[in-house]
Specification:
Two copies of one chain form a homodimer. The first copy, chain A, is built from 14 helices and 17 strands. With 435 residues, chain A is α/β, with parallel strands linked by helices. Chain A has three domains: 5-136 and 311-330, Rossmann fold, CATH 3.40.50; 140-305, Dihydrodipicolinate Reductase, domain 2 (2-Layer Sandwich); 351-430, ACT domain (Alpha-Beta Plaits). In chain A, strands 7, 8, 9, 10, 11, 12, 13, 14, 15, 16 and 17 form an eleven-stranded mixed beta sheet that branches. Chain A is elongated. The termini of chain A are far apart. The mean pLDDT of chain A is 95. Chains A and B meet through α2, α6, β12 and α12 of A and α2, α6, β12 and α12 of B.
């Protein structure tokens, strides 16, 4: 048998403890698949005596993460601490030291992936991160490798389980956002401080990672237009129902024509949107994740599964571990960062979207004409308009054709200022439909 | 720039012509992703002057496939002829000659994959075949690499578009098999001779390939228990509807306890089965494919997309091309055949399944007891029994708990011989439900 591969695990929380468990339990299979035994070199933790989900032999535990990654017998470092620091410094130190790295750290990759990828390139080592997006769902490897001969045109993902759980509750029970959030917290699907999920920060980091891979272009979290779900109302969800649609928080990365340029640019955004119930993403329930990929030759693909959780995320980490361990042993590398296309990342205003707008209006002649005029002034063409109720309940529901987000936003601004408009009750983008 | 990689394409039918088109159209992207230009060395066809979907420069066309794979300037051979011979001889010759191979040939891999994999191993070259199962859907790479650190326990796939289209029509329109097949043929979803699809041969080949990868065990088409959909009746489909289920042709590969053995064995089968409408596979409509994977740590994953067609299949071929081209250039290999687990492949009789049985019975006292007795005699326990109609229309619908397929089949045999049983009108396995 070949000499063992030594693995250092940084962090022993819900993911780290499952990684440690699987490395132990699957030892025989890992050895067969890697071509050498895989052994733990050490597990870096904050407190040696903290309670944890798995028994780690005391001699493997250390609070000295920096010392662990500097050891010259460590072949692969698995970083599951999360956050920017000390994770970044530890990963850079590991790579410099000749180790290959597997990480689940979406925040760090989306903020400063370039530094890490350049270090990996320089060191001639792998930096793999399947677990950073959509937990156990294999999506990064298919984008990077399976679709390497195709041209991806759009990625639409439900990549945050917390918000999907909340929106699903709102859809099935008619609850408002606050009640649905409370239920999600009670069931452990949302944290006490739900900001990162609810405001779309988590999804935006994943969107940046997906966009970078899909379009071979460096995209950071700062490039992602981000809107959360805190303002989604029960009325929005009802409006969606009436259109046989459902509200989902989508991470969207797509190629779009860039004004005055020959080559398309990249639009990356996270926001709630209505999608038709017939769309494969509409049936993604509860805290599940799914990523829908459109490409020129393959057509429409969907990848579905648990987007979070210790064991599922650990499964993704271990898959990467087997790959990088094989490469490490053979002295080769897998596919590194690919940013050759270097496309322009477009501002949200230039992105072409569709809007669903519900407007409480005065019930008098000429209202529809006035509203239609407002759309026309901004060169937004209307696909459908539905008039509902009479008198004080009169409502117009307008769905636009595709237009720039800026033109649509300006239209809504103008509607809000019109005398005949009592209130714009719901504004939401519409995705997943054909023009 | 590095020196170009030369690619020979064998076959220029619906897949081959799309491969040739994409190699041309995506040349810049392929060069960037491989790290060297990718050029066609030649395209082997049966007849030079046959009409084809893509313009191939005349100097590249040849009827001498054997001569093309023997050329010493060919780095990668793409085989999209299909069938056993001459495909096998050509692939073996290509590998011996030092080329890496990409193939979409499920029949050959399922019949004699071992010979090909051994030749690839000996030559130190890649043999990749993502396109052989479920067209554009990346499923083999995720099984082989993304889930390499996990333990797959079951794969449930809708891997034949023709039969899914037919069963979907039967479900939505109430049509019988013959009418639905005729519609599929009229729309180009079924061939004039539909045997390979309808009788499950195509799905069985894919099941063998999926099982081999999932369980690191050599499984051939001959190991797969195969039943087609020609005997599925409108009554079966109605029966499924009444159980809020739908009939699908499933390719199933799973780990099952083997009688008298400590290690589980592998059961691989293709047959129509009822699955609940709430199961993710139930919403796979028309000619789409999907593969549902259950594993210990990742949980339940699903991969969905177009399972056939020239361009989608070519996308999978090109993805493999990029991988093997990179390896070829670097003098490395990807993951080869992995059969270390070498599990026993169990006969269908030992496989544990559940049956749905609808029985026309005499309407008299004691019928239910007699039927229940027949199940009990074979140690098959009943989960639910529903009695419908009276008099000449009296029917019992029984759904069993899990039991060996042999015990269930014997129970049905006995029911057919009972005097109080007028007819066993529907027998179908039930999948995708929890026990």
């Amino acid at each position: 048998m070949n000499s063992p591969l030594k693995v250092a695990v940084l962090g022993c929380g819900s993911v780290g403890s499952q990684v440690v468990r699987l490395i132990g339990e699957q030892a025989d299979d890992l050895a067969a698949r890697v071509g050498a035994p895989v052994e733990l070199a050490g597990v870096a933790v904050r407190r040696i005596d903290a309670p944890r989900e798995v028994d780690v032999p005391a001699e493997l535990l250390t609070t000295d993460a920096a010392g662990l990654v500097a050891r010259d017998d460590v072949d692969v470092v698995i970083e599951v601490i999360g956050g920017i620091e000390p994770a970044r410094t530890l990963i850079l130190s590991a790579l410099e030291n000749g180790a290959s790295v597997v990480t689940a750290n979406k925040a760090l990759l989306a903020e400063d992936g370039a530094t890490l990828f350049e270090a990996a390139e320089k060191a001639g080592r792998d930096l793999y991160y399947e677990a950073a997006v959509a937990g156990a769902i294999p999506i990064l490897r298919p984008l990077r490798e399976s679709l390497a001969g195709d041209k991806v045109t759009r990625v639409l993902g439900i990549v945050n389980g917390t918000t999907n759980f909340i929106l699903d509750k709102m859809d099935t029970s008619g609850a408002g956002f606050a009640d649905a959030l409370e239920e999600a917290q009670a069931l452990g699907y949302a944290e006490a401080d739900p900001t990162a999920d609810v405001e779309g920060f988590d999804a935006a980091a994943k969107a940046a990672i997906l966009a970078s891979l899909a379009f071979h272009t460096r995209v950071t979290a700062a490039d992602v237009h981000r809107e959360g779900i805190a303002d989604v109302t029960a009325a929005d969800v009802r409006s969606a129902r009436e259109m046989d649609s459902v509200v989902k928080l989508l991470a969207i990365a797509e190629l779009v024509p860039a004004a005055g340029e020959e080559d398309p640019g990249v639009s990356v955004r996270v926001h709630p949107a209505m999608i038709p119930r017939s769309h494969p993403l509409a049936s993604v329930r509860e805290a599940y994740n799914a990523v829908f990929v459109e490409s020129e030759a393959a057509g429409q693909l969907m990848f579905y599964g648990p987007g979070a959780g210790g064991a599922p995320t650990a499964s993704a980490v271990l898959g990467d571990l087997v790959s990088v361990a094989r490469h490490h042993r053979q002295g080769t590398r897998g596919v590194g960062e690919s940013v050759y296309a270097d496309r322009a990342v477009l501002p949200m205003g230039e992105t072409r979207t569709r809007y669903h707008v519900a407007i409480d209006v005065e019930d008098r002649a000429g209202v529809l004409a006035a509203v239609a005029h407002a759309f026309a002034e901004h060169e937004v063409s209307i696909q459908t308009v539905r008039q509902e109720g009479r008198g004080n309940d009169a409502q117009l529901v307008v769905v636009s054709h595709e237009a720039t987000d800026a033109a649509l936003a300006a239209t809504v601004e103008q509607l809000r200022d019109m005398e005949i408009v009592r209130e714009v009750t719901s504004v939401m983008r519409v995705e997943g439909t054909e023009e």
